[in-house]
Amino acid sequence: MIPRYMVNFDLEQLPTVxxxxxxxxxxxxxxxxxxxxxxxxxxxxxxxxxxxxxxxxYAQGGIAAVISDEDSPAYHRQDTxxxxxxxxxxxxxxxxxxxxxxxxxxxxxxxxxxxxxDGRYALTKEGAHSQRRILHAQGDATGAEIVRALSExxxxxxxxxxxxxxxxxxxxxxxxECFGALxxxxxxxxxxxxxxxxxxxxxxxxxxxxxTTNPDIATGDGIAIGYRAGAHIRDVExxxxxxxxxxxxGAPRFLISEAVRGEGAVLRNMxxxxxxxxxxxxxxxxxxxxxxxxxxxxxxxxxxxxxxxDFTHESEESVKQRFPTIYETCLYYGLDLSSDWIxxxxxxxxxxxxxxxxxxxxxxVKRLFACGEVSSTGVHGANRLASNSLSEAIVFGRRIVxxxxxxxxxxxxxxxxxxxxxxxxxxxxxxxxxxxxxxxxLRYAGLVRNGKGLAKGYEELKRHLTIFDCSLSKREExxxxxxxxxxxxxxxxALIREESRGGHYREDFPERDDLVWRKHTVFSxxxxxxxxxxxxx
Length: 537
Known about the structure:
Largest sheet: 7 strands, mixed
Radius of gyration: 22 Å
CATH architecture of the largest domain: 3-Layer(bba) Sandwich
Number of helices: 14
Structural class: alpha+beta
CATH topology of the largest domain: FAD/NAD(P)-binding domain
CATH superfamily of the largest domain: FAD/NAD(P)-binding domain
Number of strands: 23
Distance between the termini: 37 Å
C-alpha cells in the first residue's frame, strides 16, 4: 500500500513559513501563474533545481493560438478534438481556443518576443493543424524565449520569493482541504509552508522511460504528490512518444521538432525508402502516435534502431534561419541538417493525463490547483495536438488566479503528524533502481503494449514498493518513489483500457472501441479505480 506521507514528521515541531500562494515548479505554468498571482498576493515559488530548469525550456515548435484572420476558434477546436480521439472535454477545449489569444497577449506584455514577418506574427503550421496558428520565437527556441522573459520578470517582482534547490515532499491536507506543503531545504532540514492556495506546476513524467526528450527533473513528482494527497489521477495511460528524437551515439534524445516535417522533411527507413504512405494519407504530418508507431514498425522490419529524417531539399541558409537550435545541436554531433539524413527514433515526450481539474484548475482537494503538463484539464484527450501545451498552461493559469482571488482566508493549521515508518535505509542504490524501472516501463508500457506484458510489468513494479518502508531523506530517493507511483498508475491504467486510442496502443486490442471505452480511467488513493464517462462532443 502506498502511504499517505513519505516521511515521518510532526507539524507542531516544524518551523512554519506563511505565504498566500505556493507555486511548486518553474516551467511556463509555474512562472506565469506566479506572476499573475503576484499582482494581488504574496507568492512563494519552490523549485527543486532552478528557474531555468523545466520542460518548457526545450519546447521548440511554439504556442498554438488563433491569431490570423483566416483562422477561427471553431477550426482550432475541431483540430484539437480530432487529435484527442474522442476523449477531450468539449468545454475545456472551448476555453482553450477562445482564451488562447488573450494569453498570448499576456506573454507579450511580460516581455516574450515572438518572431515577426512584415510587421505581423510569423505563423507556422504543424502536424494535425488545419491552419497556420503556431507562434514561435528565434525560429525553434520558443520555450527558451518564454522562460527567459518570464523568469527575468519573476526575479524582479517584489511579491515573489524564489526557493531554488528545495524539494516538496508532500502536501499537508486535512478533511479534503490543502493547507500547504512540507518542504525539504538544501541542507536537509524541513519546513511547513502554509498557504491559502497551493499550485502544482511540476511538469510531466518523461523519466519513467529509458528514452525521453524530457530533462532529468521530469520525475512525475506532482502526480505522485497529488495522488497521495487525495486528488484524482486521470488518463495516465496516454503517453505521447515524440516520433523524431535524435538517435545518435553520445547525444541526448534531442527533439527534432514536428515543425521540420511541417516544412517538408520526409522520413526514410534504413534502406532509404520513404515509408509514411504505407501508414497514413497525411504522410509525415499524420498524428504523432501514428508516425511514432510507423517508425517502430520500420525499425523492426529493417532490424535497425532508428530511421532517418531527410531535410536536404532545403538550402543551408533557410535551414539555419528556420531551425537554428536544431541545426547547431546536430552540427555539434557532426550531423548537418541541410546535407545529411539525421537518425531519429521515438522517445517519451508528454503525458496527456494527470491531476483531474475543473475549468478553473482546481483538483478534488480544496485549495489545491494543478496547471500545465501535471494537470488533466480535458483539453488533450487521448492525444495532445502539437503546440497546445504551452497555450493550455497560460489559459488555465489565468483562470486559476481568478479562482484564488475569491478564496476565503485559510483556517487554523490542523495537528497533522506521521510517525509510523521504520527507520531502515534503502540498500540498493537508487540510481540502479531507477534504471531498472525505466527499462521495464519502456519494455512493457512503451509505444506498443499488450495485456501479458503490462501485467508482468505491473507485478515487477510492485516489488519496489518496499521503498516506502525505508527512511527516505535524499531528493533522488523521493524522485524514485514518485516515479514508482506514476509507473504503477500508468501501467494499471493501460492494463484496464482494452482498446487502442491516441497515445495508448494495445496490439491485443488494436481497434478503438467507442461503445465501451469512450470514458476516462480515474484513480484515487481512497477509492481505487473509478471510470468517468465522457461528455458527448
